[in-house]
């Protein structure tokens, strides 16, 4: 590497990149004389010309750089908005003399340089790189490299050291962002990233002691205050905004959140146009989610998710990584470029690869994107007066990763990376992992889209696994229910559970089962011998702690050494004692399932010590390592253990302790059924007597009517008699029907209309059309019967003519849902215009009664004239 002090090119103002000559006019030899790197790029970034210093910076001969893309092939760490984005903007706006600083991670050593952009001839752009200072790799990185050199002499160390690494307080962020940390109560800035001068005005730097209002737009600060007041910026919830900041008037993505009394604000330069970088559109996300929703199996859903997220983000490899019950991981799906160096699909990884505190961080903060593994972290500068407590970056989008994790990525051959948590039912189910062999930038919108799509995959996982689990549990619950019902009908629970249909063997996918009751042993299916079962039960009675009634394992030989004699029959055991006396035991066994597990490296290798601030070293080998597993059965699901315990409780409660209680309850049930029969008879007798009483009242009204000469009084008695009779008919239907709450409306109205026609005389007639079996509640039947009575009697009075009586049509039918439609039409002259507001021809009592009944049951009355008056009740 050339000494930076020798690579500065003095310009008219003494600046390191302000060349006093026209670069187009220089010969290659003249450009080689400059200590700064000089390159001519076309509109796409392809190198058209470069000097010797540029080749030294890139570690290649100048001739080898010609024709290659500077941002994609030579220095992909520069393919970010802060470099490539500004290059594109300078071309679009035809800007000259643009300058900014950029820090390279490794070319081949970290370097801070001043970048110049000048318009050249024939549409090219001159790019100048003037080194300002070399940057030390940092103690963490140097310690890792030094420890690797001493690895042959390393001894195993306590792996818990890795568990205690404080990865949530790294003290630095990735260089693509700027961070401000302020007090949540006062919004006073307490700490900031060392590169804050890149986005702040000169008078605002350093920002320590300033309020956020002094450096951010007022609308943004108001949104932060509102979020704090509403408690919507905590627990990983973020405020996202776009804003423009001077002096370059560049647009930034702002992300803010609150944590432990601090407001963390992250600013990241935004691409000027979405097409400058691979940016996912809402349509892309929607189509990907549609494909994901169509997946029927977990394997299919995982493969679709990996494919769609790789297409969305541009990573060379995206894999779906799933944790098992012991936090070992497995790559269950992977989508990659054809020449990907190390496929991970099907490999398993030990839990130590992602230690507990890392999993805890993944549970809290959903996504982590690393543009450049070898970037130079930007330290946080804290206000000493604010105390020395480190800033907790648990939920920060751009926090730097652990040097141990970065070394792990280096060993894996990965540079740019992505990790998005797959949370299923609030538990870390797995990770969506992206890998790239070179630095790789993903736009913020695409990061958000990938996170959303990962959440959609998590929901699909929950649906698929939940459906399968529900189906399996329902099948087992059905078998268990049939077993329990058999217990209630049997005096011998052993016979019921082992010789009935179903038996214990139909539960839990077992190949053998049995019951030990006192000293008797009853076996079903393939099991160890009776003597070995007795020895096993004796061991369980002695070794199981007091109060515990269940035992489960898929490696019985590790707990009970004599089981080595029958691992092929019973490597897995699920046992449940009946009660606390341990006289009776239900058990199930599964055979050994010899298998091979392919690990990504030997999981037995010890953790090795590091040096300096790095406590331990990650492993370097990811070669396939095959483990032959013996003595293991298929695992037992936790819910199956619970079902076994429930069945044991049923045996204990239903058979052994509650047999006499069942007999007592059976007697009580018989007594209750007799009482219910008596109540039914009594209720029917009451309805019968009410009906008879109402008929007697009707008869008395008829007798009184015949003794009155006044026509109006006689009419009033007739109407009253009809109303009483309508109620009597409802009680008559109740008495004759099977239900004490429902009435056959058609039958009731038919009988009622026959009675009303008989009372009116031979000159009147009523035709009824009724839907059979139309049952309505008692209260509705009474109201509709009274309405029918009023409308039919009114038709007799007003629709008939002197030369002939009235002809009335009554229709009873069901409507939508549980609705009822009652229609009464006559052949009279119809209702006069404005009859609703006209004075009643009689007392008006009938219409008042109709309206009251309509309101009581929430019904509606429609009236129209069609060859007479037609009334329709919708109830």
Would you kindly provide a brief summary of this structure?
The protein is an alpha+beta fold. The protein is 37% helix and 23% strand.
Structural description of this entry:
The structure is a single chain. The chain is α+β, with helices and mostly antiparallel strands and 875 residues long. The strands form eight sheets. Strands 6-16-8-7-11-10-9 form a seven-stranded antiparallel beta sheet, with helices on one face. A six-stranded antiparallel beta sheet has the order 14-13-12-18-17-15. A hairpin with a 5-residue loop joins strand 1 and strand 2 (47-50). The radius of gyration is 43 Å and the shape is flat. The termini are far apart. 38% of the residues are buried.
Task: Please tag this protein with its features.
disordered N terminus; 875 residues; 34 strands; alpha+beta; seven-stranded antiparallel beta sheet; six-stranded antiparallel beta sheet
Topology:
Blueprint: H1 4-7, H2 28-32, E1 37-41, E2 47-50, H3 52-58, H4 62-65, H5 70-74, H6 81-92, E3 98-104, E4 111-119, E5 125-134, H7 139-149, H8 160-163, E6 172-173, E7 177-183, E8 189-193, H9 218-230, E9 239-245, E10 250-259, E11 262-269, H10 282-294, H11 298-313, E12 317-323, E13 329-336, E14 348-349, H12 356-364, E15 367-370, E16 378-382, H13 403-412, E17 416-424, E18 427-436, H14 444-488, H15 493-499, E19 512-517, E20 520-525, H16 530-543, E21 550-553, E22 572-578, E23 584-590, E24 595-600, E25 608-609, E26 616-617, E27 624-629, H17 638-657, H18 659-706, H19 711-736, E28 742-744, H20 745-760, E29 765-770, E30 775-777, H21 778-798, E31 807-814, E32 820-826, H22 845-857, E33 860-865, E34 869-874
Parallel strand pairs: 29-31
Antiparallel strand pairs: 1-2, 1-5, 3-4, 4-5, 6-16, 7-8, 7-11, 8-16, 9-10, 10-11, 12-13, 12-18, 13-14, 15-17, 17-18, 19-20, 19-23, 21-22, 22-23, 24-27, 25-26, 28-30, 31-32, 32-34, 33-34
């Amino acid at each position: 590497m050339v000494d930076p002090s020798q690579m500065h090119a003095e310009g008219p103002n003494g600046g390191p990149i302000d060349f006093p000559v026209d670069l187009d006019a220089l010969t290659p030899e003249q450009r080689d004389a400059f200590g700064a790197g000089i390159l001519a790029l076309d509109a796409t970034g392809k190198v058209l010309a470069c000097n010797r210093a540029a080749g030294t910076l890139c570690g290649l001969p100048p001739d080898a750089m010609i024709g290659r893309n500077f941002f994609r092939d030579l220095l992909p760490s520069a393919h970010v908005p802060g470099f490539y984005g500004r290059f594109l903007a300078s071309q679009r706006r035809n800007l000259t003399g643009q300058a900014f600083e950029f820090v390279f991670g490794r070319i081949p050593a970290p370097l801070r340089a001043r970048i110049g952009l000048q318009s050249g001839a024939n549409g090219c752009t001159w790019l100048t790189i003037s080194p300002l200072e070399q940057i030390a790799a940092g103690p963490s990185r140097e310690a890792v490299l030094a420890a690797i050199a001493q690895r042959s002499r390393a001894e195993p160390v306590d792996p818990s050291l890795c568990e205690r690494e404080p990865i949530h307080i790294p003290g630095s962020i990735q260089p693509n962002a700027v961070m401000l940390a302020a007090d949540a109560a006062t919004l006073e800035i307490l700490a900031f990233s060392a590169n804050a001068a890149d986005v702040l005005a000169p008078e605002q730097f350093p920002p320590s002691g300033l309020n956020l209002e002094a450096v951010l737009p007022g609308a943004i600060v108001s949104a932060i205050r509102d979020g704090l007041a509403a408690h919507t910026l905590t627990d990983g919830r973020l405020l996202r905004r776009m804003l423009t900041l001077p002096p370059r008037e560049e647009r930034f993505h702002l992300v803010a959140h609150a944590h432990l009394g601090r407001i963390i604000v992250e600013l990241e330069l935004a691409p000027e146009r979405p097409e400058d970088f691979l940016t996912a559109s809402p349509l892309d996300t929607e189509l990907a989610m549609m494909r994901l929703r169509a997946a029927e199996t977990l394997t299919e859903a995982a493969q679709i998710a990996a494919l769609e997220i790789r297409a969305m983000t541009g990573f060379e490899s995206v894999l779906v990584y799933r944790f098992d019950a012991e936090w070992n991981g497995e790559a269950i799906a992977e989508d990659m470029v054809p020449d990907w160096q190390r496929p991970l699909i099907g490999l398993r990884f030990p839990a130590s690869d992602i230690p507990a505190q890392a999993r805890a961080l993944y549970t809290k903060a959903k996504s982590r994107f690393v543009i450049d593994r070898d970037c130079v972290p930007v330290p946080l500068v804290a206000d000493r007066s604010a105390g020395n407590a480190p800033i907790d970056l648990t939920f920060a989008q751009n926090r730097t990763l652990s040097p141990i994790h970065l070394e792990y990525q280096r060993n894996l051959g990965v540079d740019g990376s992505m990790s998005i948590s797959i949370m299923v039912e609030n538990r870390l189910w797995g990770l969506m992992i992206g890998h790239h062999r070179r630095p790789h930038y993903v736009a913020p919108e695409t990061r958000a889209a990938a996170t959303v799509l990962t959440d959609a995959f998590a929901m699909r996982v929950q649906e698929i696994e939940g459906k399968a689990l529900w189906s399996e549990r329902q099948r087992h619950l059905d078998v268990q229910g049939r077993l329990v019902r058999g217990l209630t009908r049997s005096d011998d629970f052993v016979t019921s559970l082992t010789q009935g249909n179903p038996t214990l063997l139909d539960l839990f996918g077992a190949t053998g089962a049995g019951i030990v009751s006192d000293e008797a042993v009853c076996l079903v299916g393939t099991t160890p011998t009776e003597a070995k079962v007795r020895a096993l039960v004796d061991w369980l009675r002695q070794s199981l702690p007091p109060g515990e009634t269940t035992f489960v394992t898929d490696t019985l030989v590790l707990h009970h050494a004599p089981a080595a004699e029958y691992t092929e029959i019973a490597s897995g055991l699920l046992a449940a004692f009946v009660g606390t006396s341990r006289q009776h035991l239900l058990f199930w066994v599964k055979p050994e399932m010899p298998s091979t597990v392919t690990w990504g490296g030997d999981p037995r290798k010890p953790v090795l010590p590091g040096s300096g601030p790095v406590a331990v070293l990650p492993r370097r080998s990811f070669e396939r390592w095959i483990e032959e597993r013996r003595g293991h059965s298929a695992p037992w699901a936790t819910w199956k253990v619970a079902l076994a315990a429930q069945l044991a409780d049923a045996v204990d409660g239903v058979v052994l302790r509650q047999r006499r209680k069942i007999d007592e309850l059976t007697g009580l049930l018989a007594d209750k059924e007799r009482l219910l029969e008596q109540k039914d008879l009594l209720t029917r007798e009451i309805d019968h007597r009410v009906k008879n009483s109402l008929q007697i009242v009707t008869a008395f009204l008829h007798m009184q009517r015949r003794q009155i000469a006044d026509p109006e009084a006689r009419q009033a008695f007739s109407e009253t008699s009809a109303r009483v009779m309508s109620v009597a008919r409802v009680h008559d239907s109740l008495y004759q029907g099977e239900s004490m709450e429902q009435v056959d409306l058609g039958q009731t109205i038919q009988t009622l209309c026959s009675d009303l026609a008989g009372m009116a005389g031979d000159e009147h007639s009523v035709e009824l059309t009724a839907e059979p079996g139309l049952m309505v509640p008692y209260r509705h039947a009474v109201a509709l019967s009274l309405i029918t009575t009023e409308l039919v009697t009114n038709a007799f009075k007003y629709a008939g003519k002197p030369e002939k009586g009235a002809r009335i049509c009554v229709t009873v039918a069901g409507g939508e849902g549980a609705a009822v439609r009652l229609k009464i039409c006559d052949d009279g002259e119809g209702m006069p215009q404005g009859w609703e507001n006209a004075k009643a021809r009689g007392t008006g009592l009938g219409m008042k009664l109709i309206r009251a009944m309509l309101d009581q049951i929430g019904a509606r009355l429609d009236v129209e004239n069609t060859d007479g008056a037609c009334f329709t009740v919708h109830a």
